[in-house]
Design goal:
It is built from eight helices and two strands. The protein is mostly helical and about 140 residues long. A two-stranded parallel ribbon has the order 1-2. Helix 2 packs antiparallel against helix 7.
Length: about 140
């Protein structure tokens, strides 16, 4: 909780340990809006509109198995050790692609996420930290 799902969704690949923990966005339940940049990240990473609705409008809690079925994560490890092994294996496999693609890999990522960058830049121009602080204060009461 507390931004964990958003942090995970900001990464290219995600691995969870089975039978412990869950993914969810409880912002709705505690009165916090999801900012436009974070919404843009979720819209790019969660391509099924029904799953996006479950995440953002229903604050659904997903176990590792359910998160995998809904394509929120890429793999599940049976234990902490196994999850780490799976994550390292995935990183090595993907690193080979990155090395082979060279500079083009970064360009493809920039193109894939251009919409997110545009939303972040637009939001940054209009950002009011006092409004954000007021929302957090209101939610904590």
């Amino acid at each position: 909780l507390g931004g964990g799902m958003l942090t995970a969704m900001s990464h290219d690949y995600r691995v969870m340990k089975a039978k412990k923990g869950f993914m969810c966005m409880n912002e709705l339940l505690i009165g916090l809006p999801i900012s436009p940049p974070l919404t843009a990240v979720l819209q790019v990473k969660i391509t099924d509109p029904q799953v996006l609705r479950e995440v953002t409008l229903e604050a659904t809690r997903f176990s590792a198995e359910e998160a995998f079925r809904q394509k929120l994560i890429d793999a599940v490890g049976d234990s902490e050790t196994h999850a780490l092994e799976v994550a390292v294996g995935l990183a090595i496999k993907k690193a080979k692609i990155t090395v082979k693609a060279g500079w083009n890999y970064g360009q493809v990522k920039r193109d894939n996420y251009a919409h997110v960058r545009e939303v972040v830049e637009k939001t940054a121009k209009n950002y009011d930290p006092t409004a954000s602080a007021a929302l957090l204060m209101k939610a904590s009461m």
